[in-house]
Amino acid sequence: MSAWMPPDLALPLLLVALPFLGGAALAAIPSLRLAALLNIALALAGFLLALGLLALPRGQGEAAWLLHLDALNLPLLLLGALVGLTTACFSAATVGGEGFSPRAGRAYHAAFQVFLGANHLALLADNLGLMWVAIELATFATVLMVALHRTPAALEAAWKFLILCGVGIALALFGTIVLAMAALPFAGDGGAALSFSMLMRVGREADPGLLTLAFIFLLVGYGTKAGLVPLHSWLPDAHAEGPMAISAVLSGLLLNAALHAVLRAKAVVALNPGLLPPGALMMAMGLASLLLAALSLWRRRDARRFFAWSSIEHIGLAAFAFGLGGPAALAGMLHLLGHSLVKSAIFFGLGRATVLRGSQQLAALGGLVATHPRLGWSLVLAMLAIAGLPPFSIFASEFLLMQQTVARMPWLALPLGLGLLLAALATVQAMQAIGLGPPPAAVTLRAVPSLLGPRLDAWAALAPLHLHLLLALLLGLALPAPLLRMLLDAARIAG
Amino acid sequence: MGFGQLSYDVAHLLAGTVLLLSFLLLYQRRISAVISTFAAQGAALALAVAWQGWAQGAPGLYVTALVAATAKAVLIPLALRALVRRFGLHRSVEPALGIGAGLIVGVGLVALAILVVLPATTGAGALAREDLAMALSVVLLGMLMMITRRQAISQVIGLLSLENGLVLAAAGVRGLPLVVELSTAALVLVLAGMAGFFAFHLRASFASLDLSLLHRHRGERAEAERP
């Protein structure tokens, strides 16, 4: 404890506390415009704080105030803060068109900040119980945001979200309890039995049967929140019915935080695996998610549901990569980063297109390149990136994963390759429909209520998209050496 | 602590009561009876947790027991009853799977829980193992209830009953530090979810269910939805 200098303690605490305080303040601000601007300011402050974390020493060592920082959560935190910032900008540009009542607008901004804070807390928490509470909080905030439109479809989506994630989170709690039960005889003092650093020390001695039991519950429980297969069906509805900015943070942050929780559990259980090694379970669930999503993508008519299914596919791929472990875990980390960047970019573009066309059906979005060239081409590029085409980083991670699979488990390469191919083809087909297809017969340009003025709106919607694509391109072409080192460390912790 | 000792036997009896009440929840056909059974399960859970607190000498568990008794045996059932009365929700349960078939599946789930937990926990003490098996059974039965019921209110009761199983599991582990926080947090999860859902849903969709309510709701809704 005494080895911790004040900034080491203060910075993570501040990063977590700021959004919660900001959320409380935003709940009291009636002006939508002011709230949207303050939302951006808070997200910017959060991003700067997250950048400040880079300067801190990160160790496997002691946890202070139940928080700890290591190579696994740092990249995800940076990503989360960045996507939070860009989504706040995008949200300011589109929230005027959502048609919120003043109360709904206040709830929306407050829930957005609480969600960001809960996401940071879930990533930083050293104590698995605290991590559970944080993910529960994030669930609440998103359920609230999904229900905000109050249409029957939105209510049904929120209800499904609440019930399925309620079950998932309950199973995760059961797994957490079993994990504590396994660690208690060795942890000495009860308070430390759920601390990740303590679990990593005593995991080798703990009973393998209990550990495996705990991991199964944690995997299915947190896997629900990550969108892995048996309990994934809340995800497309939640993406399609909430406000547009929510789809971006759902795919960009929540799924990562949930998968991060699974990775922590895997790191502990892998110390002393029983009959069922945790990696094999993750690979099975990941592959099932990939294949189901690859087939489901072909039958979608709603653009946001289409990309929600694509999120299931990519989280499945990442879970498969982490399950395979070793060098493939690096592919998993890279894939998580690339997917979050590109997917939220797509939702920004899609949100803008939906506002312009007044519908989110794939058929109604046709011919964007002809009618809105800048938006259309950006969206086409982003969709090519998500389909896994070079030179973006998703190509690099999928290539590395495929190469590892062929080298180590050739018999799994066939289903993996099939899933990748089917999903990529479906995405390219959707890209043709949206970007290059015929525009719908009567394109009606809607007058959209605007908070920032029309020119600034277009800019605030497109600049985040371009920034994300640029970052994904950089990750794919030239991974800076310090980042690569960090990702390799992360892969070692997770894999 | 083993078979034949008072604290072991009573702990078993109380946990068994909670499990039995889970079966009764599956068996009831009327919403009001389901709510009564749920209240009884809350009371049994509070007793079981308080007994564990006494047997383990852990005073923190008394707080959990108190929370369970007030919230689950009294407050939530009262609130649910008020909802049923006020909004005239369908009074009878509409199971998607027949009651008999549901009970048979339930027995299968209990067998599954025992088969999964007992071999996996050979290292732990007898009481902890069997407590965990019963808690897992309650969790699985709660899930079964959520799957086999169509109405929102029955699904909520299933979720709450599932959460009872979690509290039972947490109380059975000797020296679990966060037990109070975890169980109350889980309670808050369900409570807030319920409140939020009913507040939103009933306001938004009641107009279409009952025409006599339409006029009263229209002004408020029009104001709320159009800025």
Automatic annotation (TrEMBL), chain A:
Organism domain of life: Bacteria
GO terms, biological process: ATP synthesis coupled electron transport
Membrane topology listed for this record: Multi-pass membrane protein
InterPro entries: ComplexI-like_HydComp (IPR052175), NADH_UbQ_OxRdtase (IPR003918), ND/Mrp_TM (IPR001750)
Single GO term (MF): NADH dehydrogenase (ubiquinone) activity
GO (cellular component) term, any one: plasma membrane
TM region positions: 37-56, 76-96, 129-149, 161-188, 208-231, 243-263, 275-295, 315-337, 375-401, 413-438, 458-479
Domain NADH:quinone oxidoreductase/Mrp antiporter transmembrane: 125-416
Pfam families in the record: Proton_antipo_M
Keywords: Cell membrane, Membrane, Oxidoreductase, Transmembrane, Transmembrane helix
Record's subcellular location: Cell membrane; Membrane
Protein name: Hydrogenase 4 subunit F
Organism: Teichococcus coralli
From TrEMBL, chain B:
Residues spanning the membrane: 6-27, 34-54, 60-84, 96-120, 132-149, 156-176, 182-202
Native species: Teichococcus coralli
Protein name: Hydrogenase-4 component E
High-level lineage: Bacteria, Pseudomonadati, Pseudomonadota, Alphaproteobacteria, Acetobacterales
Membrane topology: Multi-pass membrane protein
UniProt keywords, alphabetically: Cell membrane, Membrane, Transmembrane, Transmembrane helix
Xref: InterPro entries: HyfE-like (IPR038730)
GO CC, alphabetical: plasma membrane
Keyword check for Cell membrane: yes
Localisation per UniProt entry: Cell membrane
